[in-house]
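Late entry, written up from scratch paper. The run itself happened at the end of the previous shift, but nothing got recorded in the book at the time, so transcribing now.
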Amino acid sequence: MTLSEYLNRLKDERNLTLAQIADISGVPAGTVQRIMSGSTENPAFQAVVEVIKALGGSVDEYAGITKSEPTGKRDTVFEDKIIGIYTKVIKDKNRKIAVLFGVLTLFVIGAAILMIYDSHHGNMGYIRYVVSAYQRILLWLR
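Output as recorded:
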């Protein structure tokens, strides 16, 4: 089994993206992509170790020194890192939603103020335009 096959098997088991693997391992995303695709002939040992650890694998297992046995243990460090990534994504999205809600609120308040002002000053603005348009239509129909 090649390194890229081993890493892709681990990646598929964990349902992770390359960006998530890069975040967890601390290895740059481009390096992770090259290692996972097998396009680099001699990847740095430390980068490979960090990617394998991020995927919950074992260098010894890949090298054939030991066999993996399902122990039923949970990898809490790995899960904490994934939770941290998802929490960061959710916070970023919530911040964007709050900003968009603020902009929408300001727009609605501004439109309401303009409509109130316009309705109190019938000789100018949108109401004047609509009234004059209706008057032109009525004249044209006669």
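The mean pLDDT is 84.
(Scratch paper discarded after transcription.)
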